[in-house]
Amino acid sequence: MSAATLTPSRKKDVQVAEIGKNTLILRSRTWERLKFEVEYSRQQGTTANSYLIQADKKVLIDPPGESFTEIYLQQLTQHLDINTLDYIVLGHVNPNRTATLKVLLAQAPQVKLVCSRPAANALKTVFPEWESRIQSVRSENTLDLGQGHYLSFITVPTPRWADGLCTYDPATKILYTDKFFGAHICEDTLFDEDWKRLGVERRYYFDCLHAPQAKQVEVALDKLTVLGAKSYAPAHGPVVRYSLSRFTYDYRQWCQAQKSQELSVALLYASAYGNTAILANAIAQGLIQNAVNVELINCELVDPAEITRIIEACDGFIIGSPTLGGHAPTQIQTALGIVLSTAAKTKLAGVFGSYGWSGEAIDLLESKLRDANYRLGFETIRVRFSPTPETIKQCELSGTAFAQTLKKSKKLRTPRQAVTETHVDRTEQAVGRIIGSLCVVTTRDRETHKGILTSWVSQATFNPPGIVIAITKEQNADLMRHPGDKFVLNILKEGRNVRRYFSRQSVLDDNPFANLSTQTASNGCLIVNEALAYLECTVQNQLECGDGYLLYAVVDTGEVLENHGVTALEHRKSGSHY
Ligand SMILES: Cc1cc2nc3c(=O)[nH]c(=O)nc-3n(C[C@H](O)[C@H](O)[C@H](O)COP(=O)(O)O)c2cc1C
Fold first, then answer.
1. Flavodoxin-like domain location, by residue (predicted)?
2. Topology of 426-570 in CATH?
3. CB atoms within 10 A of CB 371
4. pLDDT tens digits for 386-402?
5. Residue in 324, 327, 392 to alter for ligand 1 test, most ligand atoms within 8 A of Cβ
6. Where does the pLDDT of residue 424 fall: very low under 50, low under 70, confident under 90, or very high at 90 and above?
7. Where in the chain is the domain with CATH 2.30.110.10?
8. Cα 468-469-472 angle, rounded to 5 deg
9. How far apart are CA 377 and CA 403, in angstroms?
10. What are the residue ranges of CATH 3.40.50.360 in the chain?
11. Average pLDDT, stretch 107-131?
């Protein structure tokens, strides 16, 4: 076998070499950044690999995109009489690829296109005239080219490439892996003999393309590793021959590492023409770079039960949509319904989308989430038509901002668990796991105002609206203990450290209201303006119990001060003290 290596060129070119019996690689090469998507940002160039198997029958695998059409066909025709070509196998389809396909199909009317069923459906929609030339295959299907080249197909659907198809040739033990096991790097070296040097590019490629779909990649690996391949022939970068086991192991490890991140974000989207998908991938990068697991959900492919499961398990969710005919696609509307009925209000949310002129889908998503009181982790991203390098960067930064906010809120919400069982009675620890809304009760005695921090509040009646509030004797809350006493319950907002002014030490030393913006309620007590909401209350009943009191108070009036926040919660180590 001659693994011919051609002279380097700084211009785009096509490198051709034999990589196995009857098998050529045609590598369309560019040393420049091919596209502005994040996956190309390391600027090492890339190769678009195509393969030609010439046995009794002839198959071309994955012709490149339109930036190479001309130079690729020039090279191809030096090694193949197009009139003898039988099949073109496609690992996936995208609009960019169709330019080369159109030329090939026009020149070779006998050629059949072989692809997965989703790819076939997509092609038939856009090119109905090709219908009779498209042959869709499934995992158990094979194609006999003669001379031992008995090709088998393996469908490998992922959120990003729902139509993914790998091809295995037992004659050469080459597995054509399309988007798996690639790297964006352009060199003369065809194989991976110096594979350690490729580590950074391989990992970056995985992070950009596969980390947000780690679960589906694992399923694909299960299908591919049983084949016993000796080489991987990917769509980009060197052919994998020397590091096949190591690279497969790395993929497993990277998937595991991704899935075991402490924080996880569900990234839901639909995209008819690919623009919203590009935004989703850029946001995913921002999250992944900040050690957050991303579950990419292409809403067109995932059933509602799976969306519900992922939404329940995630720490935050981000949803993106194109606008088509003034609406969000049905699948996005379904996903939104699931989110609104499933996701806890404490989950951080985000909205993005590509639109043309009116962008109703993005407005719908944002307004529904705001109305439902979700906190948004970044300013809603609206991109007209195709993203630009700037908007891609903006998406990455938004992903980063989202990850950081998520980490902060997780810290706030996570109770400190350091106490050992020898120090605190287990029962007290268990009682301490009851949590409540963090509030400041304000009372008034002539010109003196007082504030008491509490989280022992619960709604008790609907009609009249009434609450029960527990106070301990040491809280010295005499001004609110008797029927007819008035107070204001200020419900605090998560993320604002208002409580520090009302800790025991602060109250003893200072006037807690000196550093806070307040206003006077109609019952004379103070409203803390930084609170999320306040209730003006009148005590009706009091019950002395244990070392405290239980008060039932009727809510006279109240108001939400900030529409877009969530209530701060109080977590305690132990139920033995406040
Ligand atoms: C059939 C069709 C209908 C569209 N209707 C709207 C519309 O009502 N309002 C709008 O802002 N953009 C509209 N657009 C523009 C798309 O939102 C825009 O092309 C967007 O980039 C598509 O995103 P996608 O690539 O993620 O599918 C329409 C586009 C098409 C092809």
1. 265-403
2. Pnp Oxidase; Chain A (2.30.110)
3. 10
4. 999 999 999 999 999 99
5. 324
6. low
7. 426-570
8. 145
9. 8
10. 263-413
11. 95
Which helix (DSSP H) or strand (DSSP E) does residue 117 occupy? helix 117-126
The per-residue pLDDT for 97 is 83
Interatomic CA distance for residues 130 and 558, integer angstroms: 66
- Mutate which of 355, 384, 385, 388 for ligand 1? The one with the most ligand atoms within 8 Å of its CB, which is 355
* Residue 504 reports pLDDT greater than 70: no
Nearest CA to ligand 1 atom 1: 324
| DSSP bridge partners of 452 | 441
- CA 70, 76, 82, 86 dihedral sign is negative
CA distance 505 to 498: 14
CA 355 / ligand 1 centre spacing (Å): 5
Radius of gyration of the chain (CA): 31
Round to whole Å and give the CA distance between 213 and 160: 8
| Ligand 1 near 274 CB (within 6 A) | yes
Give the pLDDT of residue 1: 39
CATH 3.60.15.10 residue spans of the chain? 13-258
Q: Which atom of ligand 1 is nearest to the CA of 272?
A: 27
For residue 368, how far is its CA from the centre of ligand 1 (angstroms)?
20
Rounded CA separation 226/222 (Å) = 7
Say how far apart CA 208 and CA 436 lie, in whole Å: 41
Cα–Cα distance, 510 to 500 (Å, whole number): 12
pLDDT tens profile 218-258? 999 999 999 999 999 999 999 999 999 999 999 999 999 99
- Please name the residue that has the structure tokens 């060129």: 9
Q: How much is the pLDDT for 428?
A: 81
Neighbours of 441 (CB within 10 A): 26
Quick check: CB of 95 below 6 Å from ligand 1? no
DSSP letter, residue 514: T
How much distance in Å is there from the Cα of 62 to the middle of ligand 1? 29
Strands 46-54 and 23-30 come out as antiparallel
- Work out whether the CA dihedral 99, 101, 102, 107 comes out positive or negative: positive
- Kindly report the pTM of this predicted structure: 0.69
Which pLDDT score is estimated for 42? Answer: 65
CATH 3.60.15.10 fits 13-258, yes or no: yes
CA–CA separation, 40 vs 91, rounded Å?
Answer: 20
Q: How far is the CA of 318 from the centre of ligand 1 (A)?
A: 20
* Phi, psi (deg, nearest 5) at residue 58: -120, 135
Chain centre distance of CA 483? 53
281 within ligand 1 shell (Cβ under 6 A): no
Q: Which atom of ligand 1 is nearest to the CA of 323?
A: 17
Q: List the beta bridge partners of residue 136.
A: 115
In this model, does residue 552 exceed pLDDT 70? Answer: yes
Q: 313 is written with which tokens?
A: 């398990």
Q: 144 forms bridges with which residues in the sheet?
A: 150
Q: Is the CB of 434 under 6 A from ligand 1?
A: no
pLDDT in tens, 327-380: 999 999 999 999 999 999 999 999 999 999 999 999 999 999 999 999 999 999
